[in-house]
Amino acid sequence: MFNSARLALARRRRGLTKKELAGIVGITARALTAYEADEYPPAEDVLARLADALEFPAAFFCGDDLDEPDESSVSFRSMKRMTASQRHAALAAGALAFALSEWVEKRFSLPESELPNLQGEEPETAAEIVRQEWGLGQLSVAHMVRLLEAKGVRVFSLVENARQVDAFSLWRGNRPYVFLNTLKSSAHNRYDAAHELAHLVLHKHGAAGGQDAEKEANSFAAAFLMPRASVLAAAPRFATVPNLIQLKKKWLVSVSALARRLRELGLASEWHYRTLCVQISERGYRITEPDDPPRETSRVWEKVLGALRQEGVTKDHIADDLAIPPAEIEKLVWGLATIGLSSPTASHFRSDKRATLRLVK
Hints:
Elements: H1 4-13, H2 18-25, H3 29-36, H4 44-54, E1 75-76, H5 84-105, E2 108-109, H6 123-133, H7 144-150, E3 154-158, E4 167-172, E5 175-181, H8 186-202, H9 210-225, H10 228-234, H11 241-251, H12 255-264, H13 270-282, H14 299-310, H15 315-322, H16 326-332, E6 355-356
Parallel strand pairs: 2-6, 3-5
Antiparallel strand pairs: 1-4, 4-5
Helix pairs in contact: 1-5, 2-3, 6-9, 8-9, 12-13
């Protein structure tokens, strides 16, 4: 049967208003409103035009309700700079990720969450506690995405061509989720990952909101990626931009993030920090990060897709099972689904057997 909620979700995923979609399909906005309000279903030919315009298979609009992230429970990295359309498109991607995650967890045993609840802790202290519990000490975090995955976080990629869309995170029951926009620089993604980790451990129960929560998450991310003792031991007292470019290789962060950390730890005065910011902007480093570290990707999806390949399962098989576009899967799994997933003679994988994946940190 036609599911009106799925039509609304697909429209939001494409960033279209009701008026815009109605115009593309050749129907009235009132008719589309009626479809989404479940007053009556579209005719078969109209549904076909809607599916074509939205680039979703027609079967998608006849499934059960999808669990979509509740906007009130989601922490967006750049909430103020996002338009409503961008925010809704990202949340719709989250609904598709939930469906994909459930599909995978019926077939594989993934790590359980090891995130502590640090509500009420100061951000810098919370970062030290997490590092201690995870056995990181003062070491640089070599790979943020894989570290989060090893600790039970479900990490998905976003491919949103908008600078305002950085990242978001949420708890879904006892499962923590993080979504990272891979069109950003690698250093930016690492900071976003640490920022979202902060929300997951500090704000699970809504301890802070708005700008207060964002400030706490920024403080946590800086302390987690650039531990106080490590920075105090390595950074010069009057750093230059070339110094920052060299030092960032140790912590794999942006030059701007490192400059802020020096100011926070008293290694740069306010005047010195502002001078560095001007020089960073003049060199274009706020747009193009110098000596950006290698792009991080997912170890979990690498292993899952590798195991599925051995069973003859293609990206198209997964998409067919879920009735979602293959391109949407590609966007969620770090682009890893294109590699070696072109087996036209493979049999459809329907096994209920669960494989256990062991993550390598």
